[in-house]
Every structure is written in structure tokens, then in C-alpha cells.
Write a structure and sequence with these properties.
single chain; alpha/beta; three-stranded antiparallel β-sheet
Length: 539
């Protein structure tokens, strides 16, 4: 797709912005001036095998014709054809190739562990805080997804999982950045900034920007919160025909979180990082309520190892857990999807009893800025799109709306981890799931996993641990101390309601003065206004 967003008028403009269409101004000006060259467009479409896209043209109102014309004129059909051919060929090859014989686990020499390397954690944390204090660290948030599976039409980052504070994911992450800036300044004496780059999609850009403006950027300075937009690609049938969502609209979808690298190039984001003197970037997904944004231990570990690329992982809970695995394939680091691994391979264990292929990918990465620059300038064109078969709402031959009950086409996307292969020094950092990973993907009414309840419980369970570790205790209505068993064993366990503001503690540090030697009734909130026991609120 060619880039360069233009402006449209009225409902057409709003819809185009929602859909993230990058429409060159010259095309839009031509449309508005009534100079659409429809015969030429028909010829282009015919040559590309996409003539069906104008089959309803005579039925469209003038505004709809203008919108469809501009949308189609902005497409590079030759490029799309190449994407489709390579993606489908790669998908077929992957199905034929057995991964198992070519896979190797992550070797211990490139692995750092929050549990197995406890004697080094403080040194790594100190290094990370030093890098932050020198304005060398930025964070990059992948926030292109809507909350469709959550049952809402707005961006996931705006979701309230039902914490006592009712903070959204965006606010929690912003406050962690604020706290980390304070910690780095406290330990190193330098006032510092962690720039926050936020990649949206056409569906989330406008509402995300409005949400941040409404909430005054959650205490961050506006100029240090940089929004940019990933590209969109049309959905296609299995034989390469572009799908119409409506008579005058192509079915479009974001080009995957790996569309990050093309977006970085198109919108000069790496240049902005270099202008600010940033040396490394922490990249993560919006939906993890426990994410340690710009985690100093992770950053310090990667810097001390001399890595240009790193992945944070959690240990798989069992061989069949549906999560991708970070490993080596033919000597090259990549993420292998669980569906590509045979059960016998997934079940292999080492002498210590751990799964050999245990490094579960959580879309949490470290990149140096020079590495990102090389990816953007040299390697990105080599990245292939992955094929995802989808049930795509479309327009039938007679113009009727069709909602298929089985996959009828594909969406093409790239993955953020596709660039591991280009790293000169790749490292892996393993953390505890209960400390750092609880994704929000499904509505509460669904399968009981990765939903608002599990996310809320994970955060409150973690904060309960912090209180206990800092010398605090919880008591019941009779004044008896509750058992110190904060970790949740299954989805039916209900944690003690306890929430600690990120502005008070980033990762459990510094709360002794609030809780040591004290007993509390739940629900408990500790924030910048003090300690609150909300017994009478019935929360």
C-alpha cells in the first residue's frame, strides 16, 4: 500500500480514518474535482485480475463512488499480488516442512532468568536504571487492536478490568513510566524522560489520541507521547481476489504487529528516536496488565550481554499450552507456533525436569536503535507475510451482505518477532508468569482464560504478595490474620482485593513505610493519597 493520508469530507472522511486508509491527496483532490478516470481504473483492475471490485459501481451514490475510487487508486495491485503469492507459498511450505528435527532449545549461555540468576538481578536493574537516567531508553507500545473479543468497539488500552481504582490499561502503563522516571532520577540524580511511542491502527488512532488528550496524557508530557499508525492490507479470497466488505468498501485489516517496521520507516520514527538520543527500545503489547514497561532488569540484562535483540519469555505451564516457543531453527532464532510442534517434541524434558522447549513468547522485546535502523532500511522487505484463514464478512454476487460460518478468505500479516533472524547477538530473559504476564483477550463470558477477571485477579494477587513481602498482613472481620497464600492456583480462586498504584511502586519496591508491621482489612488501596481500607464500600 502506498502511504500518505489525505483528508475527505463528512462521513466519508470519518469512515476512511476509522479504516486507516492512507489516501494520497492527489487522488482525493481528483475525486472532489470530479475528475475520476474510471476507465483507466477499470483497466488497472482488469490487468490485476480484480475487475470485480467495480461490479456494483452503477448502484453507488456519488460519495460512495468517490470513496471507493480513492481507496482503489491508492492500492499497489502488483505489490499485493507479490505479497499474496509469497505468503501462500510460504504457508504451504511450512505445512510440508517438519519443524521438529530442525529445532533446538535456547542455550543457557544466552538465557537470563529471574529465578535462576538471582545473584545478578540487582546488577542488571542498576544498569537498566542508569540507561534510563541517561535518556537512552524508549518504550514502544503495540496498540492497534480493538476490543472486539472483549465485546467493546474501542481500543483495548481504554478497557477497565474492574480494579478498585477503575484505571485503564493505558493509565496503568503511563503511571509505570512516570514511576520509573522518578526511580532513575532518585538513584542517578538526572531528570530523565522515557519517550512513549504508541503504534495504533486505522481503527484505533483517532480514539486513542482523543483518550490521551482527554486524560492529559496521564501526567506525561504531550511531546513525549508519540502516536503513529500501522498500515492496512485488504483481505483476499483463497485464490487472491480482494474482498469487498460493502459494495463501496474493501475489507481491510491491520498488517499485523510486524507491520511495525514498515510503519517505523513510513513515519520516520527511528529518526525521531535518534534525534532524542535513544539507544534502545522496549516493545510490548497493550493487553498485558502486568507488563513491566521499560523493565530495568530486562534492559540491563540485554545491555550487559551486548545484545541488539532480546525476547522476554515465561516458562510454559505444560507441553500443550497454546503459546509460541522461542527457539533456534536451523541455527536461527525464531518463534515457532505451538501448532507446528509435534507432541513428542513438546513433551521433551531436560535433566532438570524442565521442558526443553519451554520459552513461551509473550510479545515483549528489546531492540537497540541501530538494529531497528538496519531492520527498517535493509531487512524489512525480506519479511514475508503470514497467512491467517478467517471468516470475513463480505458482499455476495447479488450485493447481499454475507456473514460466513467457515473461513472464506485470508488476512496477511507480519509478526513483530520475524526480525529475530537478523540479530547479531540475541538473548532471552525468562520471568515468572505470575509476576509479569496476564493478557486480556476474551470477554468474561468466554472460556475463563485471559479475560477481565483473570487480569484483575492477577494484578491483585501480585500486589497482595508485595504487601506480604514488605511486612504487612491482612485480617478478616474478626481480626484474625488471613493465611499468606496469595498465588492463585486456578481461575476459581479469588484473591484478596489489594491494589497499589504504580505511582507508589513500580515492582514492589518502596512500600515498607506504608505497610510494615501493619494489619489491613480488604479491599486495600495504596495510592498517592495514602492507604485506604474500603470496607464500607462493598467492592
Amino acid at each position: 500500500m502506498r502511504s500518505g493520508r489525505g483528508a475527505q469530507s463528512g462521513a466519508g472522511r470519518a469512515d476512511a480514518e476509522r479504516r486507516g486508509l492512507w489516501l494520497p491527496p492527489c487522488f482525493l483532490e481528483a475525486c472532489l474535482a470530479g475528475t475520476m478516470n474510471v476507465p483507466e481504473l477499470r483497466s488497472r483492475l482488469s490487468q490485476a485480475g480484480q475487475a470485480h471490485l467495480l461490479q456494483f459501481w452503477p448502484e453507488l451514490e456519488e460519495a460512495q463512488q468517490m470513496e471507493l475510487y480513492a481507496e482503489l487508486e491508492a492500492m499497489n495491485f502488483e505489490e499485493l499480488h507479490v505479497f499474496f503469492q509469497k505468503a501462500t507459498a510460504e504457508s504451504s511450505q511450512a505445512q510440508r516442512d517438519g519443524m521438529d528435527a530442525r529445532m533446538e532449545p535456547v542455550p543457557r549461555e544466552v538465557l537470563g532468568s529471574a529465578t535462576r540468576d538471582q545473584d545478578q538481578l540487582q546488577a542488571w536493574e542498576n544498569e537498566g536504571l542508569f540507561q534510563i537516567s541517561q535518556n537512552k531508553v524508549a518504550v514502544l507500545l503495540l496498540a492497534g487492536g480493538q476490543g472486539t473479543r472483549l465485546g467493546v468497539a474501542y481500543p483495548k488500552g481504554m478497557y477497565d478490568v474492574g480494579l478498585p481504582s477503575h484505571k485503564t490499561l493505558f493509565q496503568i502503563q503511563a503511571e509505570r513510566i512516570l514511576k520509573l522516571q522518578q526511580l532513575a532520577e532518585k538513584y542517578h540524580g538526572n531528570k530523565c524522560i522515557i519517550p512513549w511511542y504508541i503504534m495504533t491502527s486505522g481503527r484505533t488512532m483517532e480514539s486513542t489520541e482523543e483518550f490521551f488528550a482527554k486524560h492529559k496524557y496521564f501526567g506525561l508530557r504531550k511531546e513525549n507521547v508519540i502516536f503513529f499508525q500501522q498500515g492496512m492490507l485488504p483481505a483476499m479470497t483463497f485464490d487472491g481476489k480482494i474482498i469487498l466488505e460493502e459494495k463501496h468498501k474493501v475489507s481491510m485489516a491491520p498488517d499485523g504487529n510486524g507491520g511495525l517496521y514498515r510503519a517505523l520507516a513510513a513515519q520516520n520514527i527511528v529518526q525521531d528516536m535518534e534525534r532524542r538520543g535513544v539507544g534502545c527500545v522496549h516493545v510490548y503489547c497493550v493487553d498485558n496488565i502486568l507488563v513491566r514497561v521499560a523493565d530495568p532488569r530486562f534492559i540491563g540484562f540485554c545491555v550487559r550481554k551486548g545484545a541488539d535483540c532480546g525476547a522476554k519469555v515465561v516458562e510454559k505451564t505444560n507441553p500443550t499450552e497454546p503459546v509460541g516457543v522461542v527457539c533456534r531453527v536451523d541455527g536461527v532464532y525464531q518463534v515457532v507456533e505451538y501448532s507446528e510442534i509435534a507432541l513428542a517434541t513438546a513433551q521433551k524434558r531436560g535433566p532438570d525436569g524442565r521442558l526443553q522447549f519451554s520459552a513461551g513468547n509473550i510479545a515483549n522485546h528489546f531492540f537497540t536503535v541501530p538494529f531497528l535502523r538496519d531492520v527498517v532500511k535493509v531487512h524489512e522487505p525480506r519479511l514475508l507475510h503470514h497467512v491467517a484463514q478467517k471468516k470475513i464478512p463480505c458482499v455476495g454476487p447479488q450485493g447481499q451482505r454475507v456473514k460466513p460460518d467457515k473461513p472464506n478468505g485470508i488476512k496477511m500479516e507480519k509478526f513483530v518477532f520475524d526480525i529475530f533472524q537478523f540479530a547479531r547477538k540475541f538473548v532471552v530473559y525468562e520471568v515468572l508468569r505470575e509476576d509479569e504476564f496476564s493478557p486480556l483477550k476474551n470477554a468474561d463470558s468466554q472460556n475463563g482464560k485471559d479475560n477481565p477477571t483473570t487480569a484483575r485477579h492477577a494484578l491483585m494477587s501480585l500486589h497482595h504478595c508485595w504487601v506480604l513481602n514488605a511486612g504487612g498482613h491482612f485480617i478478616d472481620e474478626n481480626g484474625s490474620r488471613l493465611p499468606a497464600i496469595p498465588r492463585l492456583k486456578d481461575a476459581n480462586d479469588v484473591p484478596i482485593q489489594c491494589e497499589i498504584s504504580p505511582l507508589i511502586s513500580y515492582a514492589g519496591e518502596g512500600i515498607e513505610s506504608y505497610v510494615a508491621g501493619r494489619e489491613f482489612h480488604a479491599p486495600l488501596i495504596i495510592d498517592e493519597d495514602g492507604v485506604h481500607e474500603l470496607v464500607k464500600n462493598g467492592l
